[in-house]
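#struct-pred

JT: dropping the chains for the assembly here, can someone run the whole complex?
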Amino acid sequence: MSMPPKVQEVEMQEVEMREAIRQAIDEEMTRDSTVFIMGEEVAEYNGAYKVTKGMLAKWGPKRVLDTPISELAFTGLGIGAAMTGLRPIVEFMSWNFSFVAFDQIISNAAKIYYMSANRFPLPIVFRGPNGAAAQVSCQHSHCVEAIYSNFPGLIIVAPSNPYDAKGLLKSAIRNNNPVLYLENELDYGIKMQIPKEEYLVPIGKAHVLRSGKDLTLISHSRMASLCQKCAAELEKEGIDIEVIDLRTIKPLDIGAILNSVKKTKRCVIVEEGHYFGGIAAEVGFEIQEFVFDFLDAPIGRVCQRETPMPYSKPLESETLPNRSRIIDTIRKTLK
Amino acid sequence: MNENFDRGALGKERLCAVLRNMLLIRHLEIRGEAAYQQGLIGGFYHAYIGQEAIQAAAIEAFGVENWYITSYRCHALALLLGATPNEIMAELYGRKTGNAEGRGGSMHLYTKRLLGGFGIVGGHLPVAIGAAFSIKYLEKRELAICFLGEGAVAQGAFHESLNLAALWNLPIVFIIENNNWGMGTHVSRAISVDKIAEMHAVSYGISGYTLDGMDFFDCYAGFKKAHKEVLESSKPVLIECLCERFRGHSVSDPGLYRTKEQMQESLKKDPILRLRHTLEEKGWLDEHTFKEMDSREKESAIAAMKYAEESPWPSPATLEEDVYAP
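RK: done, full complex below.
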């Protein structure tokens, strides 16, 4: 697991993912009075997923703001505020709702610093749950990272555990660019020991969750823990898998990926989003572009199948990457 | 409308400076269009010719020290907020010395207080309320001033931004420049009401006013009133300025949807002629002085073309710089 160095000397606390995210926001609001958070139900309701629980009571309505169901307006408002001296955190109740604010993120957030010849940096974080939850059907289950990562100017991070979640969010809030910070509804309850004292996790660094020599298994967000489980299962058969958690999608830590693939010579990429034009497609392409001669087998991938997300449970688990599809693909790649 | 406004109140010097600004805008646009026709400028080109009184009056009424934001028809506002004719023309030419180093072009000009020209109709309204939010958050005595065309009123961003600005009492003035045409579609075929500002304002519980956008004084008086009202009430104000664009939507628009007679009627309302006329009536301007003034501004525009033409291109080596801020 991704523990900090000197773990024994540091005072630790056990937190859920949602608490780790809240601590990051709270600490940064303490550090910088221009940081504020807004979104649907973040204040009086204490957050749709309780990430912002207690924050209104602590910080008051000036810095913890409930918005109407008006993503286009409050996304753009955040962008305008970031251009004029503030550091907004915009919560999407779900990244699916960011689509009605798509123009703001793509035409404005991603472009303004470059297009204005560096006049207006855009220190803003957009955050919220991404990907499928439990049977919420097709309009509430999108993985947005492949869509947004196609546009230069955006930073995209997707932590898989509370330690990274806290450290990455703090780095994101301090960053002078628009950061899309992707959480997962099913991960909010994940518990982990993290340091009590302040720490940062740098943007743009992947993390080797488990080292191995037979195959590199790459994923991010919720798929990272599924990959770890698959690796543990195959370990019993003597198959030694290196698991990499991308943590940051963009900028991609291609160096860490290539180092691992050069060592293992085989690679499988797992992504919760779809096959076509996905993160796996990009990572796989870059691997063949830079270390083709090291590969002993074609790169494998397991992604969400090319269907809208169905509601029914057996159909839902069939379209998502799952244990058996991942293990089958690993075996095929090892042949 | 503000018929009783004292047209001499601003004094000779200030009004002559306003006239010079309006002439400079006009000449810069004429030269820019000419350069476009010669193939020296690419992309889109939306001229502000005919609408000069509105933004000239806004700067006089509100002052520079506010957050300004506008649509893609942004050359005049950049000029009024301190961008030089040279840097604007160089930007249109795509040169390194341009206002945005050749990255933005015609639709994306900036100054210290201009958050940009924005290319997507209505897309800058949510950004504008963000600037107003900052002003309130940082407890400054400023305003956000957002210009939009009447075409943007049909966008969802208009409704969402007005609603949120009114709900959160944000210090912002929205100025709809209704030049009657969203490209080639007449306003009557695009917007369900007339008196756009007055009728929409009611539904957000804010004030709405209609001004004669071809008359500097009516705009100035209306903006002054709005300025005071926003500072006192901390509520947004919505204004419609009825105006005419003398050119097509962009350079490539031949304007076939308007008859010659309609155009001639429009040209009679020329805001520059109207301001000149007032100054002459007051005895503050004669034909000779006007001609001198006019040719000086024309020279600036011509000099800007020369500057742009002689300016270096941006180096391709810099292409990937500044996609991200440090």
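JT: nice. Chain B has one domain: 11-309. The interface with chain A takes residues 67, 69, 99-101, 103-104, 108, 110, 112, 115-116, 118-120, 123-135, 137-138, 144, 156-157, 160-161, 163-164, 167, 322-326 of chain B (CB under 8 Å).
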